[in-house]
Design brief:
five-stranded antiparallel β-sheet, N-terminal domain of TfIIb, 8 helices
């Protein structure tokens, strides 16, 4: 049972998600109060077989959902028909056109949040392009974005940054990212 991700286009989703959850009779079962970094809410269907997790990530400036469980496709369809959200094709199209620092940072974070759980070569190629961007801020955002899906394929590009990036702070950030992914996601010795 995989998970589905939906990245919203607008920022007016919090109240609307509460309303939709109430209309769908989902059980509210978890939250993390709003702080400077994020706000999180979670519901589950009455049968307990599907969870819907809503996140407002203020660092990345995105709002997104993760849906896990047997009714995931049906719930995702309902949410996509109710909210304005990105498709992967839209995000890949934006990534292909992104050049300046701000555009690149926004699209790599949104693409990471929307990415499927299983490795996707087309999305990975966008990461590789962003790892080579002239701006250290874009490279840093790309490192951060690897943590949304933590595909093991990110190991080699992170190692290249650690070895070759001209910016010392970037090399250190890539090292910290790789160390965290190895420890928490890939269960490798650090």
């Amino acid at each position: 049972m995989g998970d589905l991700r939906i990245v919203f286009k607008g920022a007016d989703t919090n109240y609307k998600m509460d309303l939709l959850a109430w209309q769908q009779n989902w059980e509210f079962y978890d939250f993390q109060p709003k702080n400077e970094m994020r706000m999180y809410k979670a519901w589950r269907t009455r049968d307990g077989e599907t969870t819907i997790q809503y996140m407002e990530d203020y660092y990345a400036c995105i709002h997104y959902l993760t849906i896990v469980g047997k009714d995931g496709d049906e719930i995702a369809q309902k949410i996509r028909s109710t909210f304005d959200s990105y498709t992967l094709d839209e995000l890949l199209g934006r990534a292909a056109l992104a050049r300046d620092k701000r555009e690149c940072i926004g699209v790599i974070i949104a693409l990471a949040a929307a990415s499927p759980k299983l490795f996707e070569p087309e999305i990975f190629s966008v990461f590789e392009r962003m790892f080579s961007h002239e701006s250290p801020e874009v490279r840093e955002a790309t490192c951060f974005a690897t943590t949304y899906r933590a595909w093991p394929e990110f190991k080699k590009p992170l190692e290249r940054l650690i070895e070759n990036d001209p910016d010392l702070e970037m090399r250190e950030y890539a090292q910290a990212t790789l160390r965290s992914l190895m420890k928490h996601c890939w269960q490798e010795q650090v």
